[in-house]
Amino acid sequence: MIELPGQPVAERILRRALDRQSPPQQLLLFGPAGTGKRLVARQIAWALIDPGGSHHPDAPSLDLSIVAATGASIRLDADLEPALADLATLPTVGKRRVLIIDGAERLREQEGAPRILKQLEEPPPRSHVILVTDHPPVLLPTMRSRFLPVPFRSPGWRAVAATLMILKAVAMSWLTVARMLQANGGFRAPEDIRKTAMNPRPEARQ
């Protein structure tokens, strides 16, 4: 299940999309930098490749290809063409094949964009393309129109404040543990942390 704290619109769209019997084959994740789009793209990929499975987003897969922009463009022959060739084949171990294109705004009209559009006109069965971009207006209109848009927003001050409170609570928890260990003469092994937390000396409780 896709959970996106601070991104209710994107979460709602993706949940509905992935709950379909036939999820959409093209997704466009867009929004400001630093909003988690790239991590979510990998989570979506795994949800498509192995529905119901549990995988780290960065885990590799024979059915996942990731093409990232290098400099001002995406290399057509070196990166994009091999990934599209993989996308056209049946999945190797998973249920579907997924291609993530990171920095999709760098698909130029003279280079990679026409190649992608050709693939989108007749997408191979059980294949999915996820575009990730910080600059959606730069994408060709003919490309944007073929993708389900998933907007990511900059978190509001309440979301930022909540995250800071969580970090503060974690820091305070470790500080408490450190003080307890100091009161109990330190520790020599990780197991001592559990023992100290369960049975602190009286002075550690004060």
Could you explain the architecture of this structure?
The two termini are 43 Å apart. A five-stranded parallel β-sheet has the order 2-3-4-1-5, sandwiched between helices. With 206 residues, the chain is α/β, with parallel strands linked by helices.
Strand order of the largest sheet: 2-3-4-1-5
Question: Mean pLDDT score, rounded?
Answer: 81
Tally of helical segments:
8
Based on CA atoms alone, the radius of gyration comes out at: 23 Å
The major β-sheet equals: 5 strands, parallel
Q: Between the first and last Cα atoms, what is the distance in angstroms?
A: 43 Å
Tell me what portion of residues adopts beta-strand conformation.
5-15%
Low-confidence stretches at least 5 residues in length (pLDDT < 50)?
Answer: 187-191
Order of helices and strands: HEHEHEHEHEHHH
Number of strands: 5
Instruction: Choose one word for the global shape.
Output: globular
Estimated structural class: alpha/beta
Fraction of helical residues: 40-55%
Brief characterization of the structure:
With 206 residues, this protein is of the alpha/beta class. 44% of the residues lie in helices and 13% in strands.
Secondary-structure blueprint of this entry?
Blueprint: H1 8-19, E1 26-30, H2 37-49, E2 64-68, H3 76-87, E3 97-102, H4 112-121, E4 127-133, H5 141-144, E5 148-151, H6 157-183, H7 191-198, H8 202-205
Parallel strand pairs: 1-4, 1-5, 2-3, 3-4
Helix pairs in contact: 3-4
List the main descriptive attributes of the protein structure presented here:
single chain, 206 residues, alpha/beta, five-stranded parallel beta sheet, 13% strand, globular
